[in-house]
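Deliverable D5.2: sample structural annotation.
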Amino acid sequence: MAARKSMPLQCLPEPMNVIAASMSKDEMIEILRSGGWVMIMLAILALILYVSAFDLIYYMYRTNLVGRSQKRWLRWIKHPEEAEGRVGDIIRYTQFGKADESLVRRRFDEIRFSTMLRVRCGAVFLKTLVAAAPLTGLLGTVMGMLSTFQGSQPAGGAKR
């Protein structure tokens, strides 16, 4: 499977290329300010979303439970002292003491449950943030429409 290459700035569609290359930090801050509190709320929501997503990805990377051959896993199970990293910690924990098969199975279930609980909670949190972002944008649109209608009504309650 071929590795994906990142897209250089020149390959972006023309409007995006111009915006990305020409916008300064001050201009971006001005856009956030001109959007009002809803735009700032969207920016904060996006920041929380990205931080949470990268934290979850880092957690999965840090657990380091993939990328090992089955042959290596079997050798580590037979010789837990040779196991390395988090996998080694798990194997040593599950085989600690005079553990019979049912105890080892329960210990593996405990580890799987605690790992998957963290992943599931993170995924639910990300789904909630992803669902909230468009609703926040819609709130901004509605507020903009209300202020437009408020500005277009006649001043002083004119008679018909």
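Annotation notes: Residues 1-7 have pLDDT under 50 and may be disordered. The chain has six helices and no strands.
The annotation will be released with the project's public dataset once the embargo ends.
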